[in-house]
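WARN  no MSA supplied for this record, continuing single-sequence
INFO  ligand: phenylalanine
INFO  echoing inputs
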Amino acid sequence: MSNNNLFKTKIGLIAATVGSAVGLGSVWRFPSEVQTNGGAAFLIVYIACVFLLGIPVMLAEFSLGRAGRSDAVGSFRNLAPGKMWWLGGALAILTSYLILCYYMVVAGWTFEYMWESITGNLYAGIDAAADKSAMFGTKMQQYITHDTNPLIHTFIIIGINIAILLFGVQKGIERLSNIMMPLLFVILLGFCVVSLTLPKANEGLAFFLNPDFSAITPSVVIRALGQAFFSLSLGMGVLITYGSYFPRDTRLIKTSVSVSTSVIFVAVMMGVIIFPAVTSFGLQDATLNGPTLVFATLPQVFAQLPAPQLWSTLFFLLLTLAAVTSTISIAEVSIAFMQEFFKLSRKAACLVVLLPLLVFSTVCSLSLGSLSDFTVFGLTIFDLLDYTTANILLPVCSILLCVYVGWFAPKKFLKNELTNNGEFKSSTFRFIVFVIRYIAPVLITGIIVYSFL
Ligand code: PHE
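INFO  complex generated
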């Protein structure tokens, strides 16, 4: 692998990995999970899951990628030649691609909302509307289920991905993350300040930050664990692929702690923005699930602030940045595979991976509109992809990874990776191995079983 295929700086490597992790999961899914699963109780369990389970599994992925020095399939093949373990990598690549099909569509919505905020269309007719909440709900339905508009925006996002990824790891992914991630943090901080100065900020904050421990139930724990895995980009080969771009002197444990802390920080900031805002405007009882929260409830909040268009544009820019830095990481999994396995050029690999999405993502998008009558097991294609990837494929890939790294990988492999071949000591090594061998596989199996109950 040429040096061009390694991240150039420590900061760039962290920005790219945080960029992958911080996505719609943290800015969109997290607040609605908090709302429906016991507020601060969920936050605490989520943080515990990230540190106790997420970091060890992240380290397993980083180590595999850096030692295998290849894509998700190639890394397994290099470390376990002649064995079937590469199938785990292949499953991860498939999962990541399926996720990409619908993630592009949701990223398209965020872009569309940004554009509609800039042009002012999102707020057109608001003064005349008797029921503002219904108005934003209807607008959201119209945007999402329309046959052509979401497609145009999804295609724009696919185009942006191609434009970035063609430039490769250093000049594309790393350089862009170095610009986008600081911008994202600045916008987030700006929103926190505004939200905390709203009239009923305290009430909203109390819900988010004062834990009621009796609210911790098995279902809360399982959902928090699912959220931890999704928000850290685990189980999809992304961190194996990025790990293969880490230089030899990168300290994996330090990196995983920095990445995880940043992800938690973003999630907490999102809570600090959303809960004070919705309580201040009496919207705390509105359904804060998935799309409704950011696409219907928040525009209603912005409409009550001075300069709604400005806030709305900034907010959807934030979401678009978060989404794009995640989509590029998911696409990179397949691109790296195409380059390594089929020896394609970077350009060919990018096009082979991304152009078919013009069709696949279109089907996903239409499955919410004119193809909504076509269902499998009662789910639209969009929901089917979301459900099977999050509840079955991601956990299965993570289990395979932990079982391989914990039980079958060459002896000393993990220790060498975590200590950079003995260059420094790691006091947490035993704990990490214990989690990878026993705790993670058992708990993740719990997630799968639970999702079928
Ligand atoms: N972590 C991303 C998010 O929170 C999603 C993602 C999952 C990205 C897996 C890459 C790999 O939105």
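The chain has one domain: 3-451.
INFO  checksum written, moving to next record
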